[in-house]
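User: Hey, my collaborator sent me this sequence without any context and asked if I could get a structure. I don't really work with proteins. Can you help?
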Amino acid sequence: MERSQTVPEKFRSVAETSDRRPDELTQWIEAREAEYDMVFLRADFGLTGWTRRCLGFADAIVLLGKAGTDPSKGEIERAIEAMEASGACPGAYLVLI
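Assistant: No problem. I've predicted the 3D structure and written it out in structure-token form, which is a compact way to encode the shape of the chain:
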């Protein structure tokens, strides 16, 4: 069964923190992980608290890039490189569209 859920509005302010302490949002995400075979978290375009939280939960990271645009690394790519250097990166994949 395909299903789509968004993070409930009550978690919006909590989502901006990168803290993975057991809080209601963490528990909500973990409940989705227990319920479904796959959970996709869409990060922001910048390195926000929500993006850091997404990276922290990731079993795999998929980067989407538009072919023909500037290939320079941004702050998210640099954060992923730092995760890779520390051995904390689960695996990152680039998809050009």
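In plain terms: The mean pLDDT is 83. You can pass these tokens on to your collaborator as they are.
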